[in-house]
Amino acid sequence: xSDERYAKWSALVDAxxxxxxxxxxxxxFCEGVEADSPLARAEAELVGQLRASGAAxxxxxxxxxxxxxxxxxxxxxxxxxxxxxxxxxxxxxGWAGLPLVxxxxxxxxxxxxxxxxxxxxxxxxxxxxxxxxxELVYTSGAVEVTLGEDTDGSVLSPGTTVxxxxxxxxxxxDPGIDVxxxxxxxxxxxxxxxxxxxxxxxxxxxxxxxxxQPPGTHFAIRAGDVTATALGTVFSVQRxxxxxxxxxxxxxxxxxVRRAGQEVRVRAHERVRTRGSAEQVVTSVSRMEEAHLRASxxxxxxxxxxxxxxxxxxxxDREVVKLDGKPIGTSPLTAVVPAGHRTVSVGDRPxxxxxxxxxxxxRIRFEPPAAAPPHAEAPxxxxxxxxAATAMPRRTSPAALRTTTRASSxxxxxxxxxAREHTVARRFESAVREYExxxxxxxxAPEAHAALVTLSELRLSNLGQARSALAGFEQYLxxxxxxxxxxxxxxxxALRALGQTQQEARAIGQLLSRYPATPHRAQLEARRxxxxxxxxxx
Amino acid sequence: xxxxxxxxxxxxxxxxxxxxxxxxxxxxxxIGSAADADDGAQVAMVEILQSxxxxxxxxxxxxxxxxxxxxxxxRHAKGQRRWYDLFRPRADEPDPQAPAEEDSRDRxxxxxxxxxxxxxxRHREVLVLKLGLDYTVExxxxxxxxxxxxxxxxxxxxRRKLRALVQRDLSRKxxxxxxxxxxxx
Lengths: 538, 185
What we know:
The complex is a heterodimer.
Chain A: H1 3-17, H2 24-36, H3 38-51, H4 61-83, E1 100-102, E2 110-112, H5 119-123, E3 134-140, E4 143-146, E5 161-164, E6 168-173, E7 177-181, E8 186-193, E9 196-210, E10 218-223, E11 226-230, E12 234-239, E13 246-252, E14 254-259, E15 262-267, E16 270-274, E17 281-284, H6 287-295, E18 308-314, E19 320-323, E20 326-330, E21 333-338, E22 340-346, E23 352-356, E24 361-365, H7 398-407, H8 412-424, H9 428-441, H10 446-461, H11 466-479, H12 484-498, H13 501-514, H14 521-537
Parallel strand pairs in A: 9-10, 18-24
Antiparallel strand pairs in A: 1-2, 3-6, 3-21, 4-5, 5-8, 6-7, 7-9, 8-9, 9-12, 10-11, 11-14, 12-13, 13-16, 14-15, 16-17, 18-21, 19-20, 19-22, 22-23
Helix pairs in contact in A: 1-2, 2-3, 8-9, 9-10, 10-11, 10-12, 11-12, 12-13, 13-14
Chain B: H1 2-5, H2 9-31, H3 34-50, H4 61-87, H5 112-118, H6 121-132, H7 137-144, H8 148-173
C-alpha cells in the first residue's frame, strides 16, 4: 500500500470526523485501506470502540455503588426540598466585620481587630444566586488573617487565609457550616464553583460541623493531595509534616476521603490516615479523641443564637476568658456571642456585666490588677465609630441607636417562629401580621426578604388576597434570591387569580425559560396552550 | 418512566440498574479518569432520575439518557477542574507523548479508554460526543459553548492525535507504519 493511499485515507476520515459526509466511493475506498493497513485498521477499531460508548458496561460492584449512591442522593435531595432552605445562623450577625489592625500579641504579628458596623451592607441588594458567605466569628489568641481580594466588609472572599499561632479561629460558612482551626494551623477559604465550597488546609487541624446542605452543594477540606468531602457530618482533618501525612477523623455522618483517584468512605467514629504512598486504612477512634474533636467546636454555640453581638476582650496574653461563667477562650479574644445580659470575666479578676444589644460591638479591656482597678475601662479609639463598652456612656451613632431600637422589640427569630406557629395552626391572618412585623422591623435581614415569598403565598392561597400577593412576589423578584422560582410561580398563579391572562402568559414564558426543569412544566405548558387558544378565539 | 417521574423507588432502581452501565461508560470516555468518572456517573444518574418527567417517548430511553449524561458529566468535570486548579495548579492536559504502561501494551491497539485518557481534554470531549454519541458539530458547539469552526478544528486535531498515539504504539511493537497487513516495509 502506498503512502498516497494512506494519506488520502487519513484526509478522508479526518474530514468525516470534522462533520463532512463521505460519498459511497470514498467510504468504499476507506474500507479498502482499513482492510490493507494495520494502522488504519487499528484506528478504525478504536473508533468502533468509541462508537460503542452507549453500550452498557458489565455490572460490577462499582456500578452497584453508583446506583445506590444516586438513589440515596435522590432521597436526600427530596428530603431537603421538603425541609426548605437551610440556615441555622442568626440573622443579625451579617454585619459583623472583622477588619484587621496590626498587633504584637505574642510575637506573631497579628491580632484580630475591630468589628465594624456596616449599614451599607445591610442595604445592598442580595445576589440572585444562593449566597456563599464566609465570616470570621471567633478568634482567640494570636490569629492572622490575610483577606482575599474580593472581601467586602465582613464577608470574607475565597482566597482569604487564616493563620493561627497559639490561638484558635472559627469561621461560619453559609449555609450552616462551622469551621474551627486549631493551634498552628493555616487554612484558605475556597469556592471553586457556585455550589462548592471548601477549605484548603496547608497545615494544622480544622474541625468542621455541617447542618444538612442544600441539594447539589458540597463542602470539602483539601489537605495536599487528600480531599475530604463531607456528606453531612462532624469531622476533622489534620495535616502535619509530610512524614506524618493527613488524618481525617469522623464523629458524625460520613466523609468521602479521596486521594489519587482512590476514595475511602469514613463513617462515624472512624479515622483514615494517609501517609506517603501507603494505602488508606480506616481504623476506629477512641472516645477520648472524639471528645477532643468535638471540644474544638464547643464555642460554636456562641454564635448560633438568633441575635448576636460581637465581644472583644483585651487583657494580658493567654488569660482565660469566661462568658457567663463558661470558658470561651484565651485573651485576646473576639467572638460573636448571643446578645443580652452577659457576664464577662478574665482570670481571677471580678466579672463585669454587659448588656449586649443585637448588632452591637463591644470592646472591653481588663488591665492587669496591679496596673488599674477592675472597673477601669479603656476608651475606645476616637476613630472607632462603634459603641463603647459597658459602663461608659454609649455613643449615639446612628448604628447604635438603630440596634437599641431593634432590641427593644421581639427578635426576628421570635417573629419568624411565631409566624410559623400561626401558619401550622391555620391562623393565617395572625401569621401574616407576624411576617409583616418581621419585615417592618428588620427590612434588610435576609430572612425578611425570604419571608416575602411565604407571606405572599399565604395571601394568595389562604386569604384570597391575590393583588397583595402579586405585589409581594414581584417585590421579591426585583431583588432576587434563592426563592425566585417559587416567587415566579406564585406570580403566575396570582395573575391567573386576577384574570390578567396576557401577563400570566408572559410570566409562564419567563418561568419556563429561566427554569426549564421546573416540576410545574407540564401544567404550565398546558395552561399556556390554553391561554394561546383563548387568545386566538378572541 | 411515568412511575420514575412520580418518584417510585422501585421504578427508579430498575431504571438506574438498566442504564448505569451506559452512563458509566460515557462518563469514563468523557472524563478519562476512572475514579472521577464514577463520581460524574453518579451525578448523571441523579440527573436522569430527576429528569424522568422530561422523557416524551419520541426517542429511545438510551438515546435520551445519553444526552443528559453527556451534559451532566461535562458540567461535573468542569467543576472538578476548578477544584484542582484552585488547590493544586497542575497541567490541565495529560502528556500525549508519555509512553503507555509497559505491562498494558500486550494488546495493541489498546482499549479506547487508554487512548482517550492520553488525549487532551479538549480533544477527548469532542471526539466522544461526535464519534461516540453521534452529536452534530452544531450540537457539540452548543454543549461546550464553542463556535462550530472551533469544534471542527478540535475534531480533526483530536483524530490526528489519536492516530499519532496508535502509530507510536504499533511502531514500538514493530508493526510497519504503512503497508498491507502482515507485510514488512
